[in-house]
């Protein structure tokens, strides 16, 4: 896990898993970086492949610790969670507590008639498969 401080933002990256002992370590490490001038915490979950109840508890504990005795709450963003992690966050309704920033391919606009990010990904894969078929024939 890598933690950096940039002005009033704490950036956490390379979180491989949020379960058991790793979740306890996560909570302790983040806790050491919480300061009164902190405005935002961004946690990159793009590499996180597993999360369990200990990991969820660590996230909630971090939220509570960061916002204890504050007039203005600390914004906590969970960035690019893997689909299985995002599903757990939604099932446990923690997506109401944290701001979730989906991967770019999931957040492509579709209200204007453009394809959704997931559909664009499928379309791109189909196009690559057709190109490969063309090359081999």
State the oligomer.
single chain
The poorly predicted ranges are 110-123, 128-136
Task: Describe the global form.
Answer: globular
Q: By CATH's scheme, which homologous superfamily of the largest domain applies?
A: STAS domain
Helix content: 40-55%
User: How confident is the prediction overall: mean pLDDT?
Assistant: 83
Provide the domain count: 2
Rg, please?
Answer: 18 Å
Strand content: 15-25%
The computed structural class is alpha/beta
Query: What name does CATH use for the topology of the largest domain?
Result: Transcription Regulator spoIIAA
> What's the β-strand tally?
7
Structural notes for this entry:
Helix 1 runs parallel beside helix 2. The chain starts with a strand and ends with a helix. It is built from four helices and seven strands, in the order βββαββαβαβα. The chain has two domains: 2-102, Transcription Regulator spoIIAA (2-Layer Sandwich); 105-137. It has helices at 20-33, 53-67, 83-91, 117-136, and strands at residues 2-6, 9-13, 17-18, 40-44, 50-51, 75-79, 99-101. The strands form two sheets. A five-stranded mixed beta sheet has the order 1-2-4-6-7, with no helix packed on it.
In brief:
With 137 residues, the chain is of the alpha/beta class. The protein is built from 4 helices and 7 strands; from the N terminus they run E-E-E-H-E-E-H-E-H-E-H.
């Amino acid at each position: 896990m890598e933690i950096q401080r940039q002005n009033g933002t704490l950036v956490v990256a390379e979180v491989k898993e949020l379960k058991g002992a790793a979740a306890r370590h996560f909570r302790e490490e983040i806790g050491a970086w919480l300061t009164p001038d902190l405005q935002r915490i961004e946690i990159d979950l793009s590499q996180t492949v597993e999360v369990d109840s200990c990991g969820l508890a660590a996230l909630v504990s971090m939220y509570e610790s960061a916002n204890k005795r504050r007039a203005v709450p600390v914004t906590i963003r969970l960035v690019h969670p893997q689909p299985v992690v995002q599903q757990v966050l939604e099932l446990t309704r923690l997506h109401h507590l944290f701001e979730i920033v989906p991967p770019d391919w999931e957040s492509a606009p579709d209200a204007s008639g453009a394809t959704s990010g997931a559909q664009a990904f499928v379309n791109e894969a189909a196009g690559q498969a057709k190109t490969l078929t063309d090359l081999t024939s």
